[in-house]
From TrEMBL:
GO terms for molecular function: NADP binding; phosphogluconate dehydrogenase (decarboxylating) activity. Its EC number is 1.1.1.44. NADP(+) binds at residues 29-34, 52-54, 94-96, 122. Pathway: Carbohydrate degradation; pentose phosphate pathway; D-ribulose 5-phosphate from D-glucose 6-phosphate (oxidative stage): step 3/3. This is 6-phosphogluconate dehydrogenase, decarboxylating. It comes from Actinacidiphila bryophytorum. NCBIfam families: gnd, PRK09287.1.
Amino acid sequence: MASADQAAQNSKGPGGGTPQGTAQIGVTGLAVMGRNLARNLARNGYATAVHNRTAARTRALVEEFGDEGTFVPSETAADFVASLERPRRIIVMVKAGEPTDAVIEEFAPLLEPGDIIVDAGNAHFADTRRREKDLRKRGIHFVGSGVSGGEEGALHGPSIMPGGSAESYQALAPMLEAISAKAEDGSPCVAHIGPDGAGHFVKMVHNGIEYADMQLIAEAYDLLRHALDLPPAKIAEVFRGWNQGRLDSYLIEITAQVLAHTDADTGRPFVDVVLDQAEQKGTGRWTVQTALDLGAPVSGIAEAVFARSVSGHADLREAARELPGPTPTLLDSAAYDRFADDVEQALYASKIVAYAQGFHQIAAGSAEYGWNVDQGRVAAIWRAGCIIRAAFLDRIRSAFDARPDLPTLLIDEHFGEALRGAQSAWRRVVSTAAELGIPTPGFSAALAYYDSLRAERLPAALIQGQRDFFGAHTYRRTDRPGSFHTLWATPDRPEVTPS
Ligand code: 6PG
């Protein structure tokens, strides 16, 4: 193969060994994501060192894609490190968890102060904080970086969310900007998110929002399917229409494609032959676990994670199948026309809530860990390349740019207006779903969150009373400061101030 020969020539030094110190950046871990990132770097003109635990993968990459740019392959970690110019920049693209620690332990002893390791996998931000701290002591920069966009994104332009030191970002920025997706205004979808684990934290929340967005879209589909009896191909058309408007997004676009797809074996709609048990690798779950620790109420994201979990409990679902409830019946023709439009409005409103909750969690994480995350920048780099890319992220960017300390997106002028316009339809959809017995945990949770935030008084006061009754947990009063306890067992129930 001509290209392989040429690549082999490109990549050998005069003596036939790996050339020393010539590669500008390296990628270790050449499964599809790592391979595509390496190709993206090489295509952008960067001499890219490549390495994999099993050398066959490295060879295959150079053979197949060697003509796309300059690859410098190595079979050993030592050769790989030696092939890099200084400061060395190494992107690690291996499985999160122990494999990442193993690779770091393999490479760190070969590196020198000032060198940079980038973990571009979906690591837990707490692991990233630990690794960054350990490597900092050894003088090595550790950059935990979110990378979103799947295989295609890695090759053609992902959204990149690097954490770590500002100094390491300086050394990486030109390369990351070159390989990243570009928003419509041409700006690269990469920004330094903040120190240590900030990048992986933001990527984790991105995935939590991704779960919520997918769940909401799935509920919209389910409603159209069961309340209007529309076949998947027709629903695909509805989604294609929605994609022309304010819901314009990658997830809506691919939903239309999935719904329009016919199974070749059976001739049935593809969506009808897929087992209805949603799986997960864990980033959505981490988002919710972390939100609980931070006290950030991400109920829409949590419902999306739980909905996947419910779907996977086949035995439980089987055991409960005979529970009574309405069999979804079709809406009458008068309601029919309005319903699809109502669902669009409910979807948009619920989506605003999901993003508002995710951004709230980012603000909470940023405050807890002192990251100083710029939420407008986060919205800006999610505008292209990532899975949740959507036209309305530009609106979110403007909202945070105009007011960086915005407490919630829901009160931004634009989104507040959209919610005001959508809320009647949103309520109709949630109540129709309840009447028809169609589960809409995402829509319902989003609406409940909205109503909770706008409520003048919440029944939390009653909960405080209950807590004080059985556990003397005390309560605060609306009319004066301090902590109070009622002596519930004493006949006249006097109130005391615990010392
Ligand atoms: C991305 C995706 C990517 C992936 C996740 C979610 O941003 O490119 O979020 O990280 O699709 O692994 O997968 P699960 O649905 O399996 O958790």
